[in-house]
Specification:
The protein is about 50% helix and about 15% strand. A hairpin with a 2-residue loop joins strand 15 and strand 16. It is elongated.
Length: about 800
Amino acid sequence: MSGDHSSDKATRYTPWANSIEEVAARLKVDRAQGLGAEEVQQRREEFGANEMKEGERVSPLMRFFAQLKSPVVLVLLLATLVSALIGEFVDAIAIVAIVCLNSIISYVQEAKAEAAIEALKKLAAPRTRVLRDGQVLEAPSGEIVAGDILVFEAGDYVAADARIFEANQLTVDESLLTGESMPTGKILNAVGESVGLGDRTNMIFAGTAVSTGAGKALVTAIGMETEIGSIAGMLEGTKKEKTPLQSRLEEVSSKLLLLCLGVVVLISVFGFIHGETWLVISMTAISLGVAAIPEGLPAVVTLALALAVRRMTKRNVIIRHLPSVETLGSTDVICTDKTGTLTTGKMRVRDVLFADGQSISANDAARAHSPELSRLVRSAVLCSNASLNQNGEITGDPTEVALLCLAKDAGMHPKEISAASPRIAEWSFDSVRKRMSVATREGGQVIIHVKGAPESILSLCSVTDEQSGHITKLMETFSCQGHRLLAFAQSEPQPDAHKWAELSLERVEQNLTYLGMVAIADPPRPESVGAIAACKKAGIRVVMITGDHPATAKAIASELGIVIPGKFEEVLTGVDLAKLSQKELEIRVKTTAVYARVAPEDKLRIVEAWKALGSVVAMTGDGVNDAPALKAASIGISMGRGGTEVARQASSMILADDNFATIVSAVEEGRGIFGSMRRTIQYLLSGNLAEILVMLGAALAGWPAPLAPVHLLWINLVTDGLPALALAAEPVPKDILASESKPSPKNFFSRKFYGEVGFVGGMTAALALAVYGYAINTADEITARSYVFSFLVFAELFRSFASRHESKTYFQLGPRSNIYHLLV
């Protein structure tokens, strides 16, 4: 029962490893009758409802006040208090508005994240069919209990995890859990206890959909104990970490708070030494505090990120969390899904393989015009159960669709082929024969066409030893490359003298002529190769994590350039990962390019291993199984077209076109934001340092305060703030990935950064003090203050021209590249 389960894998019951008789005995249920009404009620009371549980919710008011805890906000609130004390209420109101704007934005983004669990709930089927007291009836999914018998067919959504005991051509789409691109064929026999989720082929899982066939299954887990419930638990327990930008800004703010405290203490000491009054000392200390606080910094950051979001929207990137834009610039590892992201997500014939060992690519099929190709394509169309609608769209099983697409690529029309050779009988595919056959009427005669696994088809055909050797070699080669192989054969024309549908398979499937094979795979997106190459140049490691077969995954990874021979080529499966401790995994991730057949908790472990090594990790995904890792990653990237709502709600960024190449565009924007933020913060801090040094220098010299608090606020909010906003709007250089080194949270405030801030601030302060010293001795105090104020204003404005780029001058960049800078 559900009560037998545990979140601890070591003790968790594994029904897939037991016979159905053992499972039924454990659950105390008669498979022919199902549970009785009283037993259902008793189990529901004992084990609870079949639904996702939620953690403790935070009230909207508390969530809003939580946004006010960061050092950035504390600095701004201090600036508000200072402004109010000196009577500058307009400045105080402006700062409060900035605080509220940033808090509201953060509140809205955090509130959206809670929708992930709600989206998980919606995946459950509202009602499902169960066998109870010997009768098949419909029941609400929330009332399903362990021991219930589910009855399902094609198109049904599964309400709980269950062990299959009846199956008729049953396949299930489990992509949201496993990432497997093809529907999974189901069996009845027990499988190994330690097999991964994708290989538990005698189980069906809550939230998945039945693709073909029908069957019955015994419920073994409900609610939070299902695989999807386990994901919900991980999602609830995974906390989103601060982005590098948030950490950096908090670092700046913390240091500024300490600096404010330090300068207040210093000015008080010097004031007492010079015998000044408490009023003078207090006003000077307040002035220094104002000088230390860059009031416009949050506004600058918000505007820069908002402009980046606007640019990225035009490049098919939807940002759900503003700081995520900058996080991408620091990314050095991208853990990406395969299906639909690196690949097209659509199964297609890649190669056509003939009996003599020759082969052609599907792209060359239109130019081939060979009789052998025509015969094979005709047989493939006649054996396909996919359909072509009036709009020219092909629908059906992905493999069947691929066969009709091959015909279209070869210049042959599927409808014309089917019309010329109508089907009069079909012998469906089954897991024992591993093939299907059809009888078609062609010109008064009947031809049998057979499609299936190559070894199954070859057993029905007369081929020479040489042909058999060629075919076997092709099978080995393409299977190792991760392709799915289908072989085709047909009979000689026969008289239409039978009731074909009533003939035995032994009579139908004999004396066949082997036509060839097709290799089917989900092809890489053409742009993915260039995108991955760009990532390599930018110092970003790309890792593939997928639920597909290891051979398929490595073949695609090699084709895309993810695998680097001799350096970064290892392939690990979910079973391999289960044997590794987290410390061992942290060592192995450095050389592992591909992870296949992984479970949701495996993806989470991989992300955490890279983060433990100090990497900034981006994680892409589209399924429910990706959600915990998406939330735990430095930045989670979900798919907008083919992705699930659960994945989208758990992510910080959505790809509107589901294209890996779009991530590279986003990384460019992130690098650009990193550079502009670094230059803008450096610009603001050097100006503030100059103001502090001017005030301290004057105090040490025994001169009157050169600047009043209102002067400092004006410089910080207007003279510093507007040019800083223009610097934040600086466009991203086109060659940024190739020309600039990868940024890192560790080197944002490097010695070079502080050295430049100190040099510029010190030089500006020295010149300002020289001006003030000359003026205080040759003119009155008001005139001297005017000189210093004017000097600092023009120094800030002219210095902004040099802050637009790390290495290029203003004239090299040109005024037209950032018209905002001239306007302010």
